[in-house]
Amino acid sequence: MALKFYNTLSRAKEDFSPIGKKEVLFYSCGPTVYNYPHIGNYRAYIFADTLKRVLSYGGYKVKHIMNLTDIDDKTIRDSQKEGKTLKEFTEFYTEEFYKDIKSLNILPPKKFTKATDYIDEMVDVIKKLLKNGLAYKSEDGSVYFNIKKFSNYGKLSHLVIENQKENASGRIKKDEYGKDDVHDFALWKAWDEKDGDVFWETSLGKGRPGWHIECSAMSMATLGEQIDIHTGGVDNIFPHHENEIAQSEGATGKPFVKYWMHNEWVLVDQKKMAKSDKNFYTLRDLTDKDINPIAYRFWLLMANYRTRVNFVWEALGGAEVALKRLYHLYTELGEKIGKVNTEYQNKFRTFVEDDLDTPRALVVLWDLLKDEKISNADKKATVLDFDQVLGLGFDKLKEEKVPEKVKLLILEREKARVDKDFKKSDELRKEINSLGYEIKDTNEGQKVSRI
Q1: Which domain holds residue 414?
Q2: Could you give the CA distance from residue 178 to residue 181 in angstroms, rounded to a whole number?
Q3: C-alpha distances in angstroms, 310 versus 37, 157, 271, 287, 404?
Q4: Residue 163: which CATH number?
Q5: Are 277 and 417 in a shared domain?
Q6: pLDDT for 176
Q7: What is the pTM of this model?
Q8: Are 31 and 41 within 8 A, CB to CB?
Q9: How far is CA 358 from CA 256, 306, 315, in A?
């Protein structure tokens, strides 16, 4: 079965066929490192990670790049508030981001690209746009992209540029603006006092890049002028990704991205999770409640990436209970690893290769673990095979060593059962439970596990 992905550009599910035969060129919009990303942001990174894992599972070599936006309006504003240099401010949140993705079992990309390392490349792209008549300089020395000069503007977001607002030739200096607020956008921002000591002296003048040009320049510098896949959240479709297309194709004259893929929002109380609305949670809120971040990853995999999900603590708690159950079933399989069951593997592959249908893929995982016809060793091998895509960390699990005190209580309880002293047996069960373990009586004897 060919891989199929939903392409935002065509609004349809398409067979996947990369531009080149050797590897898939894959770019993901990463975080703006001015604060801790909230868990809604992490849906984009878990989605990109799952996609990369599916591509690798399908036999493709993947060259994955993710940017880190360490220069924009927010990073300048908040670094100044804290009295720190832009570099020390953004490096702190960059390191925190690295810790977070590790806790979510997100595989790092081939390279993280920091915007501040690619200023020269951004200047080069802007110069091409000026030469091609798609950009212009304003009186203050800033450079803007003229969206009316780019005939395909709006093809990703399906916006009509005739609705462009006429204000000072449509120019706007802000990096971000409303969904239906179409403007010429800044490629290069001339320095002003608000920027403080954040600027670069270039052939364009003293200033700094606009937000949108950063991704175009970093993508082309690391992956080339044409790439296979570009991912991000649906809130990136406009203006960010629409502007990326205009800049990149305006500079090169070539199609920029073959497959645009976007994940939906994580809601809170049926509203978009956002720092600006102060209705968000970070991974630290999860760990403060002793919830494993992998439980959040598992919860997201239970829904299609293109479906909005509403975050409530009860739902996450239910996902954590289910994940612990899966872990328990896995550790009970023993140490021997057999062969991957091809029948279950084919079912699993069918679902994950159909636009990352992880909800149905998880059903296959549960069915596998319940199937008494398959040996424990083969189950274990098959679970590990599935986890190459799911990323739930089964390979890191080990059979837990039961404390000696609990072992002695188990032996004492077994003797009480043989003696048919069921009252004492129940008392010993309660004592074992109080130590964090539970006992199940099976045909093979007593089975102990963590509660």
Answers
A1: 404-450
A2: 5
A3: 18, 24, 8, 20, 44
A4: 3.40.50.620
A5: no
A6: 66
A7: 0.88
A8: yes
A9: 28, 11, 17
